[in-house]
Automatic annotation (TrEMBL):
Record InterPro entries: Fmt, Formyl_trans_C, Formyl_trans_C_sf, Formyl_transf_N, Formyl_transf_N_sf, Formyl_transferase-like_C_sf, GART_AS, Met-tRNA-FMT_C
Record domain Formyl transferase C-terminal: where: 203-298
The UniProt record lists the keyword Translocase: no
Gene this chain is encoded by: fmt
Protein species of origin: Niveibacterium microcysteis
Gene3D superfamilies: Formyl transferase, C-terminal domain (3.10.25.10), Formyl transferase, N-terminal domain (3.40.50.170)
Binding, (6S)-5,6,7,8-tetrahydrofolate: S109, L110, L111, P112
Organism superkingdom: Bacteria
Identification of the protein by name: Methionyl-tRNA formyltransferase
HAMAP family to which the protein is assigned, alphabetical: Formyl_trans
Keywords carried by this UniProt record: Protein biosynthesis, Transferase
Function: Attaches a formyl group to the free amino group of methionyl-tRNA(fMet). The formyl group appears to play a dual role in the initiator identity of N-formylmethionyl-tRNA by promoting its recognition by IF2 and preventing the misappropriation of this tRNA by the elongation apparatus.
A Pfam family annotated for this UniProt entry: Formyl_trans_N
Length: 311
């Protein structure tokens, strides 16, 4: 089966590697245009483009896919199916209808929970016990198409978005290969998504990094895991912003934002309920450090207080 592929970040690159390794013919890869990155802000190819070029697969990088001219390369390869994973462009109906088997999406949630842009982040932030991958037949809606395959994995208590992303990327690669074999044999029966249980995973905004210690410690600990590696958490003390990366929720009480203690085990900060023990922190212009190392460069003491955002 001739499998065209559309994707951009590492999550999608893992799926493309799996499809290639399984022996499917990939006549074309679509990916976002090269973007500036790094200190020099030089144009960098996406992870998906790098995989495609390493395997000699033609790459097309249209800004949009709205016009006949923008769709021409995809039309010319006569792919039987288009696999989409974190591509970043909306596919018009003309593209969805183009391949014989349509377009299928590798979505990093157990649909209909967490439709949208940031399903991994939002699952951790919400305290979900599990997540997974759904292989979905795409339609014109936002992650509303019929489900072809769905598999769940647990969310570990210490999972961050980075660690859970890597687990789901591997699972997505395994599942799309399975799905493609079964689609070729007409063995998959599409199932409509349930009408109940729909949630939306809105895109992560940098402004969400600001922590409000009036919230419960457990909520803030989950948020830090969800926002690792982006955007992290941030709070200010004595006018200096500090990035916060890892923390543990513990029992205790105090005035929200107040430091109750600081030692090699962490910086204990009172919250709206419970205490947040910060175990990995970062000063501006520095690197992420365990609490013991951080405190050597910036001693914090009981009685100091983190600023609270305006109510």
């Amino acid at each position: 089966m001739r499998v065209a592929f559309a994707g951009t970040p590492e999550f999608a690159a893992e799926a493309l590697r799996a499809i290639i390794a399984a022996g499917f013919e990939v006549p074309l890869v679509l990916t976002q245009p090269d973007r500036p990155a790094g200190r020099g802000m030089q144009l960098m190819p996406s992870p998906v483009k790098q995989v495609a070029l390493a395997h000699g697969i033609p790459v097309d990088q249209p800004e949009k896919l709205r016009t006949d001219a923008q769709q021409a390369t995809l039309r010319a390869v006569n792919a039987e199916i288009l696999v989409v994973a974190a591509y970043g462009l909306i596919l018009p109906q003309a593209v969805l209808d183009l391949p014989r088997h349509g377009c299928v999406n590798i979505h990093a949630s157990l649909l209909p929970r967490w439709r949208g842009a940031a399903p991994i982040h939002r699952a951790i932030e919400a305290g979900d016990s599990e997540t997974g991958i759904t292989i979905m037949q795409m339609d014109a809606g936002l992650d509303t198409g019929d489900m072809l395959l769905k598999r769940a994995i647990p969310i570990a208590p210490d999972d961050t978005t980075a660690s859970l992303h890597d687990k789901l990327a591997v699972l997505g690669g395994e599942m799309i290969v399975d799905a493609l074999h079964r689609i070729a044999l007409c063995e998959l029966a599409p199932a409509p998504q349930p009408a109940e249980g729909v949630t939306y995973a809105s895109k992560i905004a940098k402004t969400e990094a600001a922590l409000d210690f009036r919230e419960p410690a457990e909520v803030l600990a989950r948020r830090l895991r969800a926002f690792d590696p982006f955007p992290g958490g941030v709070a200010s003390i004595d006018g200096q912003p500090i990035k916060l990366w890892r923390a543990v929720a513990e029992a205790g009480a105090g005035e929200p934002g107040m430091i109750l203690g600081a030692d090699g085990h962490g910086v204990r900060v009172a919250c709206g309920s419970g205490v947040l023990r910060l175990t990995e922190l970062q000063k501006p212009g520095s690197k992420r450090l365990a609490a013991a190392d951080f405190l050597r460069g910036l001693p914090l003491q009981a009685g100091q207080r983190f600023a609270l955002p305006d109510a």
